[in-house]
Amino acid sequence: MGLLSGSSSFTRYKISGPIAEPLVETVRQALAQNTVEDIDNKPEEKTLGWAGFEKAFVQDMTQADIVIGPYLVFALRMDKKNLPAKVLRQHAMQETQKRLAASGREFLSKHEKEEVKEQVSMRLFVRLPPVPYFFDVLWNMDTGIVLFFSTQKAAREAFESLFFKSFGVTLIPLYPFTWAQVSAGLDEDELSALEKLVPAPFVE
Amino acid sequence: MMDVAVALRRYSFLGPEFLTWLWFVTENEPQVIEKAAGEPVTITVGNRIVAEKRRRDSVERIAIRGDEAQMEEGLMALKKGALVTDVNLELELGDSQWRFSIKGETMTFSAMRTPATGPVHSEDEIEGAVLEKAALIEKPLQIMEKIFFAFIKARMDDSWNNTRRAVRKWLEA
């Protein structure tokens, strides 16, 4: 469902403030400083970072890798270990039995059950390979509009937070109100009228 | 500037009101679309509409897929006070055609099909493909932006009550 797919889905953003010039080099460095950390054989469940567009596993991007005409093009990479719920339940049950046998008790407290689940998850995460997911990013340098090729809430939130961490500016999602507010060229009176709008049903 | 999450909640009616108005103008006043876009563009409702009627603590939702007869069900829902929350649209400009869905609450675009582009065979062709595809994605966004801003200006105008009356008349016809 990415930029070059036959069918694409995306969320639109406007960059809220200036980014240090020269823009392309600032972006290149920020992308390079925030690539994905390797979580193979580690207890982490997921990791986030930037990747090259159509060059997913290239860590050291050059300016030529990210600039196409007036656009900056790259991807958000999310590596995630998918632990099936049944597997977790089975291992947690075995660990619970072990603890009960060792302590001679009949039940574990709520807190102990949570602890077992967490420890078992971490142990299993070490053995699971992460699955990489990629979401394309198309940043129009002329308009400051960024398209993020996903509409999933978790992916959008991850993108917004990594963008802020990397570039120090927030992204304004172009929802109906914000779209009108930041892009419609409204004057002060109109902005004030926009803020005062309340629902006006077509049918009473 | 207002917090984005607060703005999203407080003005969650704007997107559905826009999509409902858009359905009305595509059926009754297509010239409004052409004038707003500044180009001979045609927009028609595609094969899917979701309408919702919100009450204080519940949401009545109807999803319609398919032909014109079933779209009548959508109109019935609007007549009972529902608003369009998600719609599939077809946009035509000259010989080019786009299809996409818009979600009213967040204005996210999904399942966008642009006019066909050539296949990419090698890495050397990626740059050209990105430029072509980016332009094909941005074009309907620019058009939808102009139409949305025309709606916003009309919505803030004193004459909006006339538009509401016209929509009601359409629904009652």
Topology (SSEs and partners):
The complex is a heterodimer of chains A (204) and B (173).
Chain A: E1 8-15, H1 23-33, E2 46-52, H2 63-66, E3 67-68, E4 71-80, H3 85-103, H4 110-127, E5 131-140, E6 145-148, H5 153-167, E7 171-173, H6 176-183, H7 188-195
Antiparallel strand pairs in A: 1-6, 1-7, 2-4, 3-4, 4-5, 5-6
Helix pairs in contact in A: 3-4
Chain B: H1 4-10, H2 14-28, H3 30-37, E1 41-54, E2 59-65, H4 68-79, E3 83-93, E4 96-103, E5 108-113, H5 126-156, H6 160-172
Antiparallel strand pairs in B: 1-2, 1-3, 3-4, 4-5
Quick tags:
heterodimer; A: 204 residues; alpha+beta; 3 domains; seven-stranded antiparallel β-sheet; 7 helices; extended; B: 173 residues; five-stranded antiparallel β-sheet; 6 helices; 5 strands; 50% helix; 27% strand
Radius of gyration of chain B: 18 Å
Strand content of chain B: 25-35%
Regarding quaternary structure, what we see is heterodimer
Mean pLDDT of chain B: 91
Give helix and strand order of chain A, one letter per element, not per position: EHEHEEHHEEHEHH
- What can be said about the biggest beta sheet of chain B? 5 strands, antiparallel
Largest interface: A-B, 44 and 53 residues
Fraction in beta strands of chain A: 15-25%
Q: Radius of gyration of chain A in whole Å, from Cα?
A: 23 Å
Total domain count of chain B: 1
User: What is the terminal-to-terminal distance of chain A?
Assistant: 40 Å
Characterization of this structure:
The complex is a heterodimer of chains A (204) and B (173). Chain A contains seven helices and seven strands; from the N terminus they run βαβαββααββαβαα. With 204 residues, chain A is an alpha+beta fold. Chain A has three domains: 115 residues, no CATH class; 42 residues, no CATH class; 31 residues, no CATH class. In chain A, strands 1, 2, 3, 4, 5, 6 and 7 form a seven-stranded antiparallel sheet that branches. In chain A, helix 3 crosses helix 4. Chain B is of the alpha+beta class. Chain B has one domain. Chain B is 50% helix and 27% strand. Chain B is built from six helices and five strands; from the N terminus they run αααββαβββαα. Chain B has a five-stranded antiparallel sheet. At the A-B interface, strand 1, helix 6 and helix 7 of A face helix 1, helix 2, strand 5, helix 5 and helix 6 of B.
